Amino acid sequence: MLKLNNKGITLIEAMITILVILIGIFSVAKIFPIAFKIDKSAEQATVAANLAQAEVENLFYLNYDNVLVGTLEAKHRLSEDPNNRLYNYQREVLVEYVDSNLQTSVTETGLKKITVNIYWNSPALNIEKSTQIISLISQK
């Protein structure tokens, strides 16, 4: 009768085990650059939303009559310094009269719609993205 030696592992078994482990490690390692891009994109979207909200709040501090109807700010960079983190963001602010049904009106209605758009370039998708906040302000 033939006896098998089962006291250890063969070289082939060890190589296959190492190969399986390396495939797993490389598969997980490929996910990290994608995850970093998604994280950066989410961070930029959060910054953009905060910038839009800050501008809306600034306009709320003004008197209703001081918020002029039309394009308050054409699309422009928030910083001209390329080293500033706001350099990649652009803002546009529009104000228009709206009626009680929130439809655009050309005449004074006592209600104004403020639209703040923030634009930035997404590194993950390599496209321009934007976020928009719309708010209403009324006469007191």
Number of domains: 1
Largest sheet data: 5 strands, antiparallel
What's the shape? rod-shaped
- Measured by DSSP, the beta-strand proportion falls in 25-35%
| Number of helical regions | 1
Q: Got a strand count?
A: 5
End-to-end distance: 102 Å
User: Unreliable stretches, pLDDT < 50, 5 or more residues?
Assistant: none
SSE topology string: HEEEEE
Helical content class: 25-40%
**Compute the gyration radius: what is it?**
28 Å
Q: Assign the structural class, choosing from mainly alpha, mainly beta, alpha/beta, alpha+beta, or little secondary structure.
A: alpha+beta
Mean pLDDT: 90
Helices and strands in order:
Blueprint: H1 11-60, E1 70-77, E2 90-98, E3 104-105, E4 111-122, E5 127-138
Antiparallel strand pairs: 1-2, 2-3, 2-4, 4-5
Relevant terms:
about 140 residues; alpha+beta; five-stranded antiparallel β-sheet; about 35% helix; about 30% strand; rod-shaped
Describe this structure in words.
36% of the residues lie in helices and 31% in strands. With 140 residues, it is an alpha+beta fold. Strands 1, 2, 3, 4 and 5 form a five-stranded antiparallel beta sheet that branches. The radius of gyration is 28 Å and the shape is rod-shaped.
Brief overview, please?
This protein has 140 residues and is an alpha+beta fold. It is 36% helix and 31% strand. The protein is built from one helix and five strands.
